[in-house]
Amino acid sequence: MGDAIIKDDAELAARLAEFAGRIAVEVRDSGLIDGKPLGSAGDNTANAFLMRAIAAQRPDDGVLSEESRDTLERLNKDRVWIIDPVDGTREYGERRADWAVHVGLAIKGEPVIGAVALPGISEVLRTDRIAALPQAPEKLRMVVSRTRPGKDSQAVAEAIGAELVPMGSAGAKAMAIIRGEADIYLHSGGQYEWDNCAPAAVALAHGLHASRIDGSPLRYNRADVSLPDLLICRKEHAERVLKLVSELG
């Protein structure tokens, strides 16, 4: 980036996510770290870059990162960058493609700007470059955790006859809908703001539904950063899924 200031927030988010992903890949591919420490090394190195770059590019904005101590100074800011340097550390360490880098910008609590980098496939999905959604198949597909699928997701999938698609990162799951690999992402097993701010921003920009599983809007930059559940799907499926969640709840 040099000393140049990137004035466009969406372009900045995309650049940050892309370069942080490259850094994490370089750390992994160095061959100098292995086992459990690899995930932390990738997370921490990418986070150091993101924190420094955001401070240089947007010094007046707040930041909330999974990998940095939260000072709560962000609560006095209208603009807060919410980042997850490596979302899906298990998949990252296993050299799978379903991990992501999240860079989101919440403005007055709303997920307005964001980019989700998928370094395993060299792709960055962003709020300012909208791709046409592929047509949904007759048999819907629901992405779920590949290690611990939630009971709500499984129950709803059974009720609507959807195929379960196991996947790692929350960002990878959300982006799978835009990429035409899935149709519904329903999660109720616990997340934090950094897990879904950027994915929600990108999903909303692409015309998808994104909300809590009770249908209420997703809100960010709160003192309690827990945001335990969400639904991201095509708008035409949202009412049916939300109704089923309520009935099965």
Automatic annotation (TrEMBL):
TM ranges: none
The keyword Signal appears for this protein: no
Keyword Metal-binding applies: yes
Record-level GO BP terms: 3'-phosphoadenosine 5'-phosphosulfate metabolic process; sulfate assimilation
Keywords: Magnesium, Metal-binding
InterPro entries, A to Z: CysQ/Inositol_MonoPase (IPR050725), Inositol_monophosphatase-like (IPR000760)
Cofactor(s) demanded: Mg(2+)
Protein residues bound to Mg(2+): 66, 84, 87, 195
Any GO molecular function: 3'(2'),5'-bisphosphate nucleotidase activity
Protein name: 3'(2'),5'-bisphosphate nucleotidase CysQ
Record lineage: Bacteria, Pseudomonadati, Pseudomonadota, Alphaproteobacteria, Sphingomonadales
